[in-house]
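Go through this one:
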Amino acid sequence: MAQTRVFIIDGTRTPFLKARGEPGPFAASDLAVATGRALLARMPFEATAVDEVIVGCVIQAADEANIARLVGLRLGCGLQVPAYTVQRNCGSGLQAVASAAEHIQLGRAHLVLAGGTEAMSHAPVQWNAAMAAWLGNVVSARGFTERMRALVRFRLSHLQPVYALLLGLSDPLVKLSMGQTAEILAHRFGVSREAQDAFALQSHRRLAAWFDAGYAADEVEALYAPSGKFYTEDTGLRRDTDMAQLARLKPAFDRKYGQVTSGNSSQVSDGAALLILASEEAVRRHRLPVLGEWLDHAWAGVDPRQMGLGPVHAVAQLLTRHGMKMRDLAQMELNEAFAAQALACQAAWDSADYARAELGLDAPLGAMEPERLNPEGGAIACGHPVGASGARLVLHLLKSLQRKGGGTGVVTLCIGGGQGGAMLLRTAENAA
């Protein structure tokens, strides 16, 4: 089957809203619809021209099952346009874009709306199993006597809640939270607390500079809540933070010996990011401007205890397949799950021992130059709505490179459960 080139036409995202102890003002579908509406409004084709809708989402609400279909219908894509939701933990948004690219490459679609959405603040608080069993027995009891017998079996421990978000941020096999896996990497690669805090501070400063320069206007769409409040900027951005404030924070995952804190970790957030992908035929038919071109993607598995090293392996696969080194990239967007994790990836890429023993390479790829790694900040500052982050990385890489004159770059992220994903892209100027 003949393969066609795949182009990214445009994209947008919401401001990422930091979770602050209660459900945020938007459901996940609301976030995606607000994003998609703004994106489709500036396209020269009708929403019904889209062949498919693919959305990444990790924590789907009970009333938003197959959220991609709900979003497609709310956006007016039409009853005939199929849609499906993907879940690859933190890589869900990237998986949605990858799936769209593959469908277009194989000629099975010409226009695809793809990306991700997440309302982490809406993660459910559930009854525990004992409470569920007790309720079931009460409801199914027949007659007054049997129901009273069921009722008296109630215990106060039945009221202990189960927080779905905490379960989702822990690995069920190795029994470690994502933060604990970051502690393992910090110890393995000798990443100090000071280095982690410095990386976090840099993320906030770079993101603040990006907003202050007005560049976000080309990437972030304002959100308007039913209350009348509106958002134009990522609410987790801390313009006032400094090393002294970061140093005062207590370890979050290993109280006695740990170095990973809330300040040098990504934020629990709500947000969405969507893109339009198109074939060569669709570009010609609709006379579409091209933002960039998808070239390839790769996925890798690693030990769940060190899940943060997933990007090291995925990027190694991708660059080796294309005969490239780190120095060939104009920019890399590495999702900042934790400062320790990002810095550990840099150390692993630069290690000859790791290259030989873990990647099967004769020589290391080399670390990415710090100036070209997340030059406008990352998830430590802007937040990490897990279903949306992969799509945000694709959007931001291409917009950033376009503004700087073009080039080839990689987006990559670690994935809970011990995986990594990476995608190779280039801007329109380099796609001829």
